[in-house]
Structure formats: C-alpha cells, structure tokens
Amino acid sequence: MTATERAVRLIEVAAEAAAEKLADDILAYDVSEQLVITDAFLLCSATNDRQVRAIVDEIEERLRIEADAKPVRREGEREGRWVLLDYIDIVVHVQHEEDRTFYALERLWKDCPPIPLPEGVRHAAAQRSRGAAT
Questions:
Q1: What angle separates helix 5-20 from helix 119-133, to the nearest 10 degrees?
Q2: Are strands 40-46 and 24-30 parallel, antiparallel or unpaired?
Q3: CA distance 131 to 89
Q4: What are the counts of helices (DSSP H) followed by strands (DSSP E) for the chain?
Q5: Which among 107, 81, 105, 104 is positioned nearest to 94, based on CA atoms?
Q6: What letter does residue 61 receive in the DSSP assignment?
Q7: CB contact set of 71 (below 8 Å; sequence gap of 6+)
Q8: What's the CA gap between 23 and 25, in Å, rounded?
Q9: pLDDT tens digits, residue range 75-131?
Q10: What is the DSSP-derived secondary structure letter of residue 110?
Q11: Are 50 and 8 in contact (CB under 8 A)?
C-alpha cells in the first residue's frame, strides 16, 4: 500500500506553506505500510517558537483554503516547541530545531519511502542553505 493521492496532495500543500514561512529541513515520508492511522508524515523545523507558530498557522490556512482540510487534532501549540497537526490522511510535525535534533523523527521513519516535495520547496531550501553558507 502507498499513500493516497489525497495524502500526497496535502503533503505538497503543507510543504509549500512551510517553505513560505522559511521552515528548515522539510521532509515527507510515506508511512502507510508502517501505520494504519495515517498515510504520510511531514516534518519541518524552525529556529524559534514564534516561527513554529507562524509555520503552523500558514499550513492550517493553506490546507483549509486549497484542500478544504481541517485538522482533527492539534497538539503542542501552547508550548510552541513541537506542534502536531493531525489531518487523518497526514500528520504534520513542526518542531523547534533543538527538539527536532533531540527526537530525530527522521531516524525512526528512515526505512519509509520519502515523498518527493514540489520543486519550489526544494529550491527555497537550497537558496536558504546557500545563503547561510556565505
């Protein structure tokens, strides 16, 4: 089994929204063979709590407008360090970079197939990494 077309579309929209708010290390995994509760995970991180909240807000707004999707559960918003958005088809994890490093979710899901992200998301990430290197 692989992630549904709807799940992949939600991942694409969420990844684009995260990139627009300058999220770092945006990754997506097809977890449909490992979990029965969702098809895909989107992981991304931010340098501070305010940016975590901004990314979450943008993802929610874009998914609502572009995919008519609303989260059935939202956790971690009060602390602003790790916010989880559950859309049933996908689960979005927006983490403070320190928490992302500590919990290393990508290590847990490394055996799951990655979901290719839109070109704009990859291009934005490459631009930011080049800017950080200079």
A1: 30
A2: antiparallel
A3: 34
A4: 5, 5
A5: 81
A6: H
A7: 60, 63, 85, 86, 87
A8: 7
A9: 998 788 999 999 999 999 999 999 999 999 999 999 999 999 999 897 776 666 656
A10: T
A11: no
Q: Within a 10 A sphere around the Cβ of 61, how many other Cβ atoms?
A: 11
Q: Print burial letters for 94-119: b (CB count within 10 Å at least 16), e (below 16).
A: bbbbebbeeeebeeebeebeebebee
- CA–CA dist 24, 113 (Å, integer): 20
List all residues 6 or more positions away from 21 whose beta carbon is below 8 Å from its beta carbon.
46, 51, 54, 55, 58
Q: What is the pLDDT of residue 120?
A: 86
Mean pLDDT of the residues in the chain: 92
